[in-house]
Batch of 3 targets.
Target 1
Amino acid sequence: MLRNLLRLHSRVGHALSPPIVCPRSQALKLPLPLLSVNSKYYSIITERKKFYDDVSISHGEAGGMFEINLDQRKLKTPGGKLFTAPNEALAIAVANEWDTQKDTVKFYSMHMTTLCNTALDNPTFRSKDQIITAALKYLETDTICYRVEEPPSLVELQNNEWDPVLNWIEDRYNVVIGSSTNILGPEIPQATMDTFRQHLGSYNFWSLTGLEYVITQLKSVVLAFALIDKHVTVEQAVLLSRLEEEFQIGHWGNVEWAHDVDLYELRARTAAGALFVHFSSESSTVKRKLMQD
């Protein structure tokens, strides 16, 4: 069933469109209202009439950092900090989000921008260790690990579609995870938790911010790791995370437009999170160039 779904949705892309960055202008340090990535930090105002014409990127005063300019104003975070990206690839992705806004700036759709805001402001004042601990909590009730006992057709579907991913991560990291029909999920060995904690510790703070975001979208550490390691695509990861829901829809039907909107939004958030991890892990800068329509 899932393979049929993947073929059905195969035409939907999950990469960012080519960035469009407008000509540079002299920058002035004026604060701009933005939103944070976590919904509980969002401002009441999630849309605003577009208040700028040109978008550009420039080298910041701090070496190696890049800034975003909206007309003659420097972009700032919700916390009032100067918005800076650690490399040009990430800066271009953020600039693209601002440049593709039409008459209304839809802050809630700007996932790369809000992920950067979260990394810069760190509104919950968490350390790397705290982020890792929060991310690993999802392993205890991982979507891939929790299985149903009936109906038999759904049991078979879960085994056929989830077991290969579970087997892959156990082989890839030399760990034991397993699955369970218990509502609490399988009991994860401490050695597995220690291995994943060490692996997550190899990411920088920015990358961890993005990876935790992907995990929360998919409700799965297993699927998040498979996606970041490019073992599955964004489309596959999202459908695997929604396997039971898609099964029920196949049997009982759905409100088509609502299902499609939810699916596409989850794809967009997951894709943005995965790109953010890769971009923020990038140690080298790309060749600077202006990209125009």
Note: Confidence is low (pLDDT under 50) at residues 1-43, 284-293.
Target 2
Amino acid sequence: MTTQGTLYGKVALVTGGSRGIGAATAVRLAREGADVAVSHVNGKEAAEDVVREVEALGRRAVAVRADLAQPAEAAAVVDAAAEALGGLDILVNNAGVGVLGPLETLSLAEVDRVLDVNVRGVFLASQAAAARMPEGGRIITIGSCIAQRVPGPGGTLYAMSKAALAGLTKALARELGGRGITANLVLPGPIDTDMNPADGPYAAGQAAMTALGRFGTADEVASMVACLAGATYVTGAEFSVDGGHAA
């Protein structure tokens, strides 16, 4: 089946695209017509499943292994995706790690890992993508609702890493706007994934913090990403997909 949508002829890279929000986003962009590369660290089989799902929609796809905590790999995954699919129009910075716990228990290794992936990795991937993107490219970063409202203790490190993405996004919008490249930030709330299932031990409390009283789905986040991938006059902005978590 060949899909021709609003993104027909575009090439996208979704980091951390082997599962959850990343996998849903890769498939949604393919439904809109894009060819899609997905990166993964250890989820090779899951990434290959996403590739097959994209190909079933009539689009080209490739899976690339990359650990965004490694500076060289954060940039190289962009080059690998562009070379495999003939260019790059859309970067979705989705890969991230979360370490929660009391402030005094967080080790330097944990601090470095979270900031390396969630902040430096996003910066380096965006830098590499901007060097390859044509006029009108898109950089869409997945943040977190916890950057707007921290519901309780234990989230200091994670919240700090996700809050940094707001400044990065606004600066990218200003720096790249002259080339028609937009940069936007999506802030998911509690989303039903294997990392944070809607029937997990802490799910009821998370759902209760939202105005809608439920978890969101990965597809609901992916729909916002697809909208921003097609938008031409939206940049430097933040979009909550959080069921009213920040309301």
Note: The chain has seven helices and nine strands.
Target 3
Amino acid sequence: MLKIRGYLRSAVVLLAPAAAAQPRVSLSTGPQQKHRTFYEFRTYSIHPDQNTAFLKLTNEKIHLRTAHSELIGYWSIEYGGLNKVFHIWKYDSYSQRAGVRAALSQDSSWISEYVSKAIPMLTSQENEVNYLVPWSHLQDPPQEGGVYELVSFQMRPGGPAVWGNAFQAAVTSHDAPGYGKLVGAFNSECGMLNRVHALWWFESADQRAEVRHKAHTDARVVAAVRNCVVHLDSQENKLMFPCSFSPLK
């Protein structure tokens, strides 16, 4: 009996270091953000009878706003929502955005020449903070003009650790010759969580329709999409035309 007890004590001593060496389970839900730069998505809904006037005013006065921070793109939504505009603003940090907001509140020209006239034309405003996903960066379209598509995916809870690779594979399968041009892929930080966006460029709405039909018969694309949709709750899209003052055209 003493020999057996001594053996068990020795076994515990031998097993203890191995157990202690086991790695801890990571609590991370995905790649960590490596920088503070983020993109604010804004969607404004306009009174139907004020849509033309709002776009004209914005075209004339947007320079008062871009004097304070960088505008990435400004679009008028044509399909997937009427009488709406969508725009993306870039900020280096939350403190920079706070500073911009403070400066705008003191900019008399911005307030009197634009805000006071534009706000009555709107029915609602929405915003969302997004980061570029680690494997994406903003790209210019091959040429000016064309149509942009913003595809938004509401993924199931769990974060990029659960669905990130599948989402990347599905998106990049479409970012190939003969398909659309991926301008950027984004992951939401403030707003709806577990939401990702893909911003695409096409030569025209007709070319985009042709690409959709092509994708349905492309085994490579179909397989990647099937692996992704098991993590998907819902999705929506908008087809948009860039405004004349938009940096991305």
Note: The CA atoms of residues 96 and 175 lie 33 Å apart.
